[in-house]
Target: Transcription initiation factor TFIIIB
Amino acid sequence: MGNEKLVCKVCGRDTFTTGQVGGTTSQGNIRPIGAIMAVGSPLLMTFCKNCGEVASFKVVKPEKF
Model:
């Protein structure tokens, strides 16, 4: 996402934050399909602080794929 101001498509507010799913272990990480033993990568999510609508997902380490 660039420097543009985000506006929530659900509630119309403009207050967003970022959270992470996954981390240093493989639990919660996104992995290549069929790669059971791969650690994969955490996901960053940008979402509306008012209603929780997710504006974007970003794979932190795309080189893992």
About this structure: The chain has no helices and three strands. Strands lie at 16-21, 43-48, 54-59.
